[in-house]
Amino acid sequence: MLFGTACNSSTDVQEGEQPDGDSLLELVDPNIGSVHSRWFFYTPGALPFGMAKLGPSTNGSYGNKSGWEAVGYDGRHESIEGFANLHEFQIGGFLFTATTGKLYTVPGTLEKPDEGYRSRFDKEDEVATPGYYRVKLKDYDVTAELTATERVGFHKYTFPKTDSAHIILDIGNQLGESGKVKDAAVTFNDDNTIEGWVITYPEYVKKYQPDGEVKIYFSAVINKTPKSVGAFNGNDRKENQQSTTGIGSGLYMAFDTQEGESIEMKAGFSYTSLENAKKNLLAEAKDLDFEQAKTLAQKKWKEELGKIKISDPSKENKVKFYTGLYHALLGRGLASDVNGQFPENDGSIGQIPLDENGDPEFKFYNTDSVWGAFWNLTQLWTLVWPEYYNDFVQSHLAVYKNSGWMSDGLANSKYVSGVGTNFVGLVIAAAYQANIRDYDVELAFKAAYENEVKYENRNEGAGKTDLQPFVENGFIPYQPGWDTSPEGSAFSVSHALEYSFSSYAVAQFAKALGKDAAYEELMKLSRNWEKVYDEEIDFVRPRLASGDFIQDFDPFAPWVGFQEGNAWQYTFYVPHTPEALVEKMGDEKFVSRLDSIFTVSEKTGFGGEDIDAFAGLSYLYNQGNQPNLHIPWLFNFTSQPWLTQKWVRRICDVFYGVEEIHGYGLGQDEDQGQLGAWYVMSSIGLFDVKGLVETQPSFQFGSPLFDEVEITTASGKTIRITTKNNQEGNVFIQSINLNGKPYTQSHIGLDKLRAGAHLEIGLGNTPNKTLFEDL
Questions:
Q1: pLDDT of residue 775
Q2: In sequence order, what are the beta bridge partners of 198?
């Protein structure tokens, strides 16, 4: 009864859904940037913000030594070990696959695929699109297909005629970023249901919450009774056994199949219990077969992608745009069950309050750290997906209520701080300023305020363990190495700059709530960036505990006072008061230095020439990493704003590509949609350097790439951006009209956009140097 009757549904994508006739789904290519991508990057069998995230794994079983290395699917690889069901930051699990012939119960290696159940595949046999994936497993003549609802993953395997077909469920092994497995179990029941669980110990949990662990559960059903079932733990196979426990646990099911026969399996997932995994399965998929689920998944993706419509003659730019938007929506994933239960930080099961209809009042989400997310994701969420943004805030407040601290990243509520800082307070402050406020505002302010000033007995999982010297002395002493402590930090300068920014953000939150004392306290902290600015050389520079600047200073050197960057890059990290930075350096020098940085950086693709997540850290500029993402927009705070128009356009054209190896630079670190969301915001010509933290948030203008952009907001209002003379070389704004009237400000308020706005932007090949009256 868990499998409904199949309905007729076309797998073809219909034309005519866009003004230019291109299908939205056809304009998304999940394979773009898949070379050297992170674990959570490649999951075509998923819904926006979903829990079930299905995708092929080429090396997911290889481990993840530090917790962040590129692992999972790599576009250069030629064999697939199976299909993983869960892909989140520090979370991975449940590898399913199908084979024929000799049975193997270990995956084998890329170099020696015949030593395991992995299979070779050809790119021409692979189809990846939002909500659906298909590939031919050449070694077994099996076609595998994947799709999903929010919490349920669907697998469909089409076999040749054989008496040795197998479906393998590899449960108890490390997968992706999951960390080492502590325990696992899997059972096949006589009613063709299967259930299992695994407990993992991710590297970031090990670091930031050593007593924590991550539990994941599944409850599945298969639509054909196997002729036999066996269990295994690695190579230790147990025939005719229907359950097993411990590290390496797995099951295999054997079948006789006819030519072209398909076997379907659907699995509900939960981060709380087996019972809830089954509830999720029944609630979302009781009457769905694979084709029905696929149709619903593609419909959902069309709806969400269609909230921003663009018109442009360049197919390549449209593919970049919608692939970037796809990754932005694919990012952070659902972690609560249909009944509103979710994993608490202390290991218990929490309950989201239910509304009058018995539905949870919000959804709880997992998340990578929000380092840099205010320059891409949160701006996009604010305009189009505020309901998700609100749930994001609620998720972090739930962890705060349970543990007393907020964590920059969450893996089933466990602390996974990412880079050891914490920008959640800033993200919450920006949500409030954007009128996203369906949560306990006083609790939100208390959590955000404590995140900026509270250092006594601070939990390492909350990040910012070097906060005390920042608060007490105004700077953080530099200490060589890789550690951060109350005595100082190897990343002393970048942390001080970041804490100054987040202090400013929460200060504006305090101002909006009339909390004058907190406002003054936080504003004082927000000026601490000045104490690491060396006016003799116009660079930020590490200071020792004595207060002296370090000697033998190399502004190109990464990691010496700077996390994932260097002084060339971080000197521009004063986003909360860019006007003050320009004044300190001098407008002429500021513009000259920044313009020359981009002139030189264009030659290296704006992000380094190595296939590496940290490519570009010793360069002048690095579009592939978070600390740099606001920098090309800083010209808007100088006498030459047209240089923002020029260089943002060049970055969109040069850094972003449409190939597996050159999608987001060369193997850059696309953290759960951040670089994709940056392209979306930049290509429509709206961006806020301050991350929407002001009491009246606004966006600065850039040069839109497209002939027309139509954004449907959550309230149903439309933001329409049209360009005139949008031809090659015409990258400079000549004029702006708002709702038919001339507009001469360098920024536009969020409130004006939300009310419904039509921006008409004229473009030309030379700057209009008198366009903005406020500069």
A1: 85
A2: 184, 216
- Tens digits of residue pLDDT in 691-728: 999 999 999 999 999 999 999 999 999 999 999 999 99
**What CA–CA distance (Å, rounded) separates 207 from 338?**
31
* 88 occurs within a structural domain: yes
Q: In this structure, which amino acid lies at residue 607?
A: G
Query: What pLDDT is stored for residue 661 in this prediction?
Result: 93
SS3 450: helix
Residues 6+ apart with CB under 8 A from 657: 32, 33, 320, 663
Sign of CA dihedral 158, 242, 83, 370: positive
Residue where one domain finishes, among candidates 304, 328, 360: 304
**32 HSE (CA, 13 A, CB side):** 28
Contacts of 142 (CB under 8 A, 6+ apart): 98, 99, 100, 119, 136, 157, 158, 159, 160, 165
pLDDT in the model for residue 22 = 54
Distance CA 239, CA 242 (A): 9
Tell me, yes or no, whether 445 lies in a domain: no
Kind and range of the H or E run holding 218? strand 214-222
For 17-39, write each residue's pLDDT tens digit: 343 435 999 999 999 999 999 99
Sheet holding 747-749, edge to edge: 686-687, 698-701, 747-749
What per-residue confidence (pLDDT) applies to 238?
94
Model's pTM, two decimal places? 0.96
Q: At 427, which helix (H) or strand (E)?
A: helix 424-433
* Structure confidence by residue, pLDDT tens digits, 548-570: 999 999 999 999 999 999 999 99
**Torsion, CA 80, CA 84, CA 89, CA 91, rounded to 10:** -130
Residue 548: DSSP 8-state: P
Task: Enter the DSSP assignment of 744.
Answer: -
Query: How many residues belong to the chain?
Result: 775
- CB-CB neighbours of 757 under 10 Å: 20
* Sequence-ordered list of residues with C-beta below 8 angstroms from that of 612, at least 6 positions apart, any chain: 36, 666, 667
The last residue of one of the domains, among 576, 605, 631, is 576
CATH number at residue 43: 2.70.98.10
Does residue 692 lie within any of the structural domains?
Answer: no
Alpha-carbon gap, residue 602 to 648, rounded angstroms = 11
Q: Structurally, how many domains does the chain consist of?
A: 2
Q: CATH number for the domain including 563?
A: 1.20.1610.10
Cα dihedral: 243, 244, 248, 250 (round 10): -10
Supply the range of the domain harboring residue 47. 24-304
Alpha-carbon span 477 to 498, nearest angstrom: 15
Q: Name the token pair of 393.
A: 């805030």
- Tokens for 394, please give them: 């609620």
Residue 478 falls inside a structural domain: yes
Question: Which residues are within 8 A (CB) of 483 and not within 5 positions of it... i.e. 6 or more apart?
Answer: 489, 490
